[in-house]
Fold this sequence. Notes:
The complex is a heterodimer of chains A (232) and B (253).
Chain A: H1 9-41, H2 45-76, H3 80-113, H4 124-145, H5 148-178, H6 183-215
Helix pairs in contact in A: 1-2, 1-3, 1-4, 2-3, 3-6, 4-5, 4-6, 5-6
Chain B: E1 5-16, E2 19-30, E3 34-38, H1 45-51, E4 62-70, E5 73-74, H2 82-88, E6 89-92, H3 103-113, H4 119-132, H5 136-139, H6 152-164, E7 170-174, H7 182-195, E8 200-204, H8 208-214, E9 217-222, E10 225-231, H9 232-237, H10 242-248
Helix pairs in contact in B: 3-4, 3-6, 4-6, 6-7
Amino acid sequence: xxxxxxxxxxxxxxxxxxxxxxxxxxxxxxxxxxxxxxxxxxxxxxxxxxxxxxxxxxxxxxxxxxxxxxxxxxxxxxxxxxxxxxxxxxxxxxxxxxxxxxxxxxxxxxxxxxxxxxxxxxxxxxxxxxxxxxxxxxxxxxxxxxxxxxxxxxxxxxxxxxxxxxxxxxxxxxxxxxxxxxxxxxxxxxxxxxxxxxxxxxxxxxxxxxxxxxxxxxxxxxxxxxxxxxxx
Amino acid sequence: xxxxxxxxxxxxxxxxxxxxxxxxxxxxxxxxxxxxxxxxxxxxxxxxxxxxxxxxxxxxxxxxxxxxxxxxxxxxxxxxxxxxxxxxxxxxxxxxxxxxxxxxxxxxxxxxxxxxxxxxxxxxxxxxxxxxxxxxxxxxxxxxxxxxxxxxxxxxxxxxxxxxxxxxxxxxxxxxxxxxxxxxxxxxxxxxxxxxxxxxxxxxxxxxxxxxxxxxxxxxxxxxxxxxxxxxxxxxxxxxxxxxxxxxxxxxx
Lengths: 232, 253
């Protein structure tokens, strides 16, 4: 961390390994969303099942990263920026692991949806997925580059996803009112949108921690007045 | 300056002969606070500690420019008695240095020099000082035994008790636990925490975790300058200066 290296190269290496572990986990989580969405759009149940199976690797890496953090806390007694990095890493690790779980949730819904006829072509949901994947990627880029502006941009994107989620909700509501037989399918799609909206909250959480890492200021609870994650 | 400040160091430069050990130091020490001074060897932190009670007077060629204000007076003014300064601002050193005398005599040595004579007064003073240094229970039955028979940790607490017996306002500690094992260190740290109720403590330490554990404020010195003086929490979570950060995270030099 920072532009200067530790006197202890061993310590430096441990911090770098932790950073690499987080980025690798981020890649797995992002890929899980991508595959889950592809499974949805292409009605590919096999791919959905693979997303569910692959979550074991995410959980495994989550544990490894957490162990790295605990070990550094115990053995190195990090201070200042290093301390903030470890605190940040613990939280980012948790966010990424949860993102993996959300991808599994989506994949499970896809399996159920694929048993029913398609209600409508998916438009907003792939857009939501695209934005959330970008948010995860950018939040991790902001971590590597320690870029507060980029992190702030991620935080603002969250609103776009929230709005799309509401839009999906309203649209599906009209389907359900018109034809109660669509309720089951519509609810499953709503849950998928809800999961994507939560993923964007996690990406925002990652960005919040990057701002804390770089500035030492906590911004987690300074978001807009609109309550998050209250929809649906 | 804050009103609860007990010592104010104002524009101090300090020289050993032609070598300038401290440059342009201005800082204040708050009453009933533990202030830690940290920095790499040769940064001037011990020099600063020693000039606070004129310990450096004893070194040839030592010279101070600026002022050290203690209770509205510059302790370097011509009419100030350094012995009185050292009574009010006591000191505990790195290695325990009890006198080769009994435990009792170690405590009463200073007060006797300052005119405390009555046996009863001296006895009370010994008990009170040893209690404050959390040593009483361990030594109350062996007060006439030589201080040299005590363990290192006990000796250091005896030295603290000896400093307290002079009823100082400020206690300066120069790496007080660097020669002690972890248990004795923990006892001294616990003691520091209790002492701040009644005393102002200024401690030089190479152990940064110790600074983090015991102090409320921390000053970081480098090459004779005070780089950052902030609350200890701020210093150890989010210091303002890059140099402070590099030092406490182990990225120095």
